[in-house]
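BACKBONE GEOMETRY TOKENS:
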Amino acid sequence: MLKVYLSGEIHTDWREQIIEGAKGLDVSFAAPVTDHAASDDCGVAILGEEPNKFWHDHKGAMINAIRTRKGITDADVVVVRFGEKYKQWNAAFDAGYAAALGKSLIILHQDEHQHALKEVDAAALAVCKEPWQVAEILRYVLTSKLPA
């Protein structure tokens, strides 16, 4: 089974598109928590309230990092999507972490981010624009079949 970690932007359905496109393949998917409020507030919900927003965010980031590190470490392939609406600094960090671990890295973004992500793209084994391309890469890797 190929283990794939889907990192990055949480405001669109790109993960669902890849999962749907990979149906029938021997693939398991993992991802960060995509409920934005839950992700932001997990630290204070579990460890207690913080009057300072910095420490509120810090607690959440540290707890989320446990999940992220496990997901990336366990993965065979890491897919990182950079969306159009927000700057995903955490996604860039995830891509760097995956690259440092020697993971097979697929980056997903539109042309508008080509220059900003040139170093991230250089570390990737594939750079895609569309989720279906990621699914087709997974299909090829597992079956050696090209798209119809």
The longest strand covers residues 2-8. Residues 8 and 48 are 27 Å apart (CA to CA).
